[in-house]
Each structure stands twice: as structure tokens, then as C-alpha cells.
Amino acid sequence: xxxxxGSSSIKFALFDAGKSLQRILxxxxxxxxxxxxxxxxxxKEDNVSRAVGLPDHTAAxxxxxxxxxxxxxxxxxxxxxxxVVHGGPKYWKPQRITPEIIAELHQLSPFDPEHLPEEIxxxxxxxxxxxNLPQFAxxxxxxxxxxxxxxRLLPIPRRYDAKGVQRYGFHGLSCQFLVKELHRVAGxxxxxxxxxxxxxxxxxxxxxxxxxxxxxxxxxFTPTAGLPMSTRSGDLDPGLGWYLFRAxxxxxxxxxxxxxxESGLLGVSETSPDMRELLSRSKNDVRAAEAIALFCYQAxxxxxxxxxxxxxxxxxxxxxxxxxxxxxxxxRICAGLGFLGIEINPRRNAANAAVISAKDGNVVVRxxxxxxxxxxAETVSKLLKSK
Length: 387
Fold this sequence. Notes:
Elements: E1 2-5, E2 10-16, E3 22-30, E4 36-41, E5 44-49, H1 57-73, E6 80-84, E7 95-96, H2 99-108, H3 116-129, E8 135-139, H4 149-152, H5 158-161, H6 172-186, H7 188-191, E9 194-200, E10 204-210, E11 213-217, H8 239-248, H9 252-261, H10 264-269, H11 275-281, H12 286-310, E12 315-319, H13 320-325, H14 327-334, H15 346-350, E13 364-367, H16 372-386
Parallel strand pairs: 1-6, 6-8, 9-12, 12-13
Antiparallel strand pairs: 1-2, 2-3, 3-4, 4-5, 7-8, 9-10, 10-11
């Protein structure tokens, strides 16, 4: 079983770990903490009222475990693999979760207070109910662990680097899948070439990959950095926090909440963090139009930056909810990048084809649906077999 805990949701999937890994089902619990939650399996959705019990992540995971109880008690469930967003300076290889690792992850919570506390909570809840069920952590920072030193360094006093304050990068499980899938559909030469992976969804990052390894990435010490996202600001002038404190008495906690939950597409549009909604409103709402324009402009800049880090570009991959399903956003991001060799075919782009680049373009532009759950399941399956 794979578990991916978000700020208001828990995504999960079950795989048959036979000779060929087969997905049995996929589902999610959404709306955690809201008046009406959702429990969805294979696209079929049931509403779960708050009274039934989804006021927080503890209640939500208990609801999920009740649903799974028969499978677990019958011994059908071999292990649980968790997506853990931040591994800090110590953890990058997948790990069997032990009490010692949980204690260290608690110490790492200040590195990522938006994700780690809930992820730890999920592992602890499973352990309380099913103490003999093996659990594994797959770290989203792992793919970027061997980035060049110059890409990891932050230009602040060196003493903080010794404390683990550096560029970590995220969406690593997605990047790992995209490189592997590119190898499957286009061959080893393409997968080993100069790649830019644009994972554009609620969270968005752009990563430079060469020889199958991460060279640089837009997210940094936390997932708030880089280009604007659904509710995250992306990169900002560091002096803004001090200005808001002096001008409006904005505290550090309030600033943190603002840049993570009130900014990005939602902050600029003042209406929605959802790209689909904004695209539908953009002709009549200048705020929605500006939010889209800013997102696409910043994504374009980051693609150029990563091409510079790579010394050129062979393949551009779009993935994530926006990258996979928003042709207009892809078109606007790629517009004007002909000097890099990026030219897209409007008809293929509108159809969400697997390859959307024009024949005369020097860069292959692809749309590849990501699958973090499969990477987690494959990793856990290998670890079980190795033991």
C-alpha cells in the first residue's frame, strides 16, 4: 500500500506485488477538516460528514484503516510505503520506519512544518493499530541529493550550511518516475540526455536532469520556493518579510501562512487556486488573467534557467495536473522559446498528445502523466524482497 499525505488529503493505492506490479485500486480521502469530506476509490466517491469523523488527519487515517482492516488482518497487506516530503540532510535512501527514525523525523519537522507533522502522524497511526505491519519511508528529496555542490549552496552565512540549510529540491519521486518512463517510451539515449522536467500542479517545480541525475531544481530549502503555485508564492524578495513586519506588524507565523496558503494563483486572482477555473474566467476577469500570465511567465523563465544549467536542452517534459491537462498553459509557457529549439504543434498540444513538439523543433516536448505511487510501490517491493 502507498500513502501520500497532504495538508487536507490522503491519497492511497494498493498494488499486487507479484512478478509484475499491478495496481489493484487507487483512492483518496479529501476535505480533511472541512464540513464535508470525501472518500474516493477508483473514481467512485462517497461523502463523509464531519460528524462521521474527518475533522483531522488522525480521524481520516483511522477511517482508512477501518476500511482496510479486513485485508490487513487477513495478512493480505505486506507493507505500507509512505511519501515523506523532507528527508533533511540525513535521509535520502528509502528506509524501514523504526521508532528511532520517527524520533529523528520529529526533530526535522522545522525543515518542513507544512508536511512532516502529518506524515509522521500517519506512520504512527498505522503502527498503533497494526504494530507488526512493516512501513517504509520514501523521501521526496532523495532524487536531488547528489546535485552539484554549487546548486545546493545557499548564499547565506556558511555556518547554516553546516546545520543542513541548503537547497534540497522536491517532487523527487515524480522526477524519478518521469526519467524511468522516458527511458521506456523513448529509449536510454533520450533518458540520459539533457532534460527539463516541468512538474506543474498544486505544487510546481522545474528540474534539470542530465545523465538521469538531478543537476538543479527550482524548489529549495522548502517546497515554497521557485515558481508561483496554487497557493504558494514561489521566490520572493527576502526583504519583503521585514517590510511587512514594519508596515503591518505581520509576524513570522503570519508571513509563513501567507506565502504557503494565501499566495500564488489564489493570491493574485483573489478567487481560486485552480488553473481550470482561472482559465474559464480569464476573458472576463483581469485578476484571473494576470494570475495565469504570471504563472506561465515564471515557468518560462525557470525552463530557460535550467536549460542554461544544462548547457542546452534535448527534451522538455510536462507533468502534474496543469502540465498534463492544461494545453493553453503549455502553449503560453513554450511561446517565444524557439531560440532554445522549443516549438510545439498546436493541434497535438490541444489533444494532450504524448509528444506535442513540432517536427521542425530541435527539442522534443512531451506530456507524461506522473505516477509517484508506482515508484513508492516498486521501491517497497524491492526492499521487501531484499530482506
